Amino acid sequence: MKKPLAGAVLSLLLTGVAAAPAVASTPDTASAVAVTYAGTVALSNCSGSVVRTPNSQPGDPALVLSNGHCLETGFPAPGEVLVNRASSRSFSLLNAAGSRVATLRASKIAYGTMTDTDVSLYQLTKTYAQIQSQYGISALTLNDTHPVQGTSIKVVSGYWKRTYSCNVDGFAYRLKEGAWTWKDSVRYTSFCNTIGGTSGSPVIDTATGRVVAVNNTGNEDGQRCTDNNPCEVDESGNVTVRQGINYGQQTYTLVPCIGPGNQIDLNRPGCVLPKP
After folding, report:
1. Looking at residues 114-123, what average pLDDT do you find?
2. Per-residue pLDDT at 191 exceeds 70
3. Residue 243: is its pLDDT beyond 90?
4. How many angstroms separate the CA atoms of 148 and 208, rounded?
5. Is the whole model's pTM more than 0.85, yes or no?
6. Which of 211, 194, 207 is CA-nearest to residue 249?
7. Angstrom distance (rounded) from CA 116 to CA 273
8. Which of 35, 117, 189, 200 is 20 to 30 A from 276 via CA?
9. pLDDT digits over 8-19, tens only?
């Protein structure tokens, strides 16, 4: 995972004690929309973003998207799903330039898991309308369809205030890392060389400005299916290791599970997220 918690080296990365990482290389492509830091957030150990579904209303309590492995409760065990768990976690809200404009606070962990996907959704104490009125920041919109191979994307890290630009290289039928297995993961081309602390960053389609995935991991050392070294497993069980390649988890699957008032409802039609 990319990465809180898993050892002293990762702790150094996340606290900034280690040497500052190099700025990512970027392919020579122009964005169709202006992708900025507006709406992204910094967690204590990860990145994230304020998000809405296409049907969310201004008066709905806002949601923050990050990874399941970024939860303050620790890594969820395989098969573990958290729903409507009390939380008062804080998030630094960034503007377009990457400056902190506010501290937002959660009222609960609306959803969190590392089974099939690696995602957390926090419900905030403020609505979208309040955030817009008080800070001039709009939420990012979750795309409601499967991303497409070749799509130009940006991974926008609120933790590091750094953006990585690349393309969707393809999809991993299964991505296995240690005890966890994720389905239909997004594989990036090599320009998105994300690092520890970029976990939970929104992966934004540069043509639409919508969130198509949440950044979560990469194979660091070329090891096979170990922590911090995920491997791809195809339908026949064949394993492929791609050292230096990074991945995200698709987010269109969240949309059917978010009902009126931004409430998580895992029984809604089309919702396939794991249940407790």
Report:
1. 98
2. yes
3. yes
4. 13
5. yes
6. 211
7. 8
8. 200
9. 333 333 333 322
The reply to whether CATH 2.40.10 applies to domain 40-142+253-261 is: yes
Above pLDDT 90, what percent of the chain? 88
Which residue has tokens 């994720």?
182
Kindly indicate the confidence band of residue 22, based on its pLDDT and cuts at 50, 70 and 90: very low
Instruction: Give the residue with greater pLDDT, 10 vs 131.
Output: 131
For range 52-76, the mean pLDDT = 98
DSSP codes of every residue in the chain: ---SSSSHHHHHHHHT-SPPPPPPP--S---SS---STTEEE-SSSEEEEEE-TT--TTSEEEEEE-GGG-TT-PPPTT-EEEEEE---EEEEE-TTS-EEEEEEEEEEEEEE-SBS-EEEEEEEEEHHHHHHHH--PPEEBP-S---TT-EEEEEETTTTEEEEEEEEEEEEEEEETTEEEEEEEEEPTT----TT-TT-EEEETTT--EEEEEEEE-SS--SSBTTB-EEE-TT--EE--TT-EEEEE-GGGGGGB-GGG-B-TTSTT--S---
The whole-angstrom separation of Cα 88 and Cα 54 is: 26
Question: Beta strands 140-141 and 47-52: pairing type?
Answer: parallel
Domain boundary assignment for the chain: 40-142+253-261, 143-252
Question: What dotted CATH number matches 143-252?
Answer: 2.40.10.10
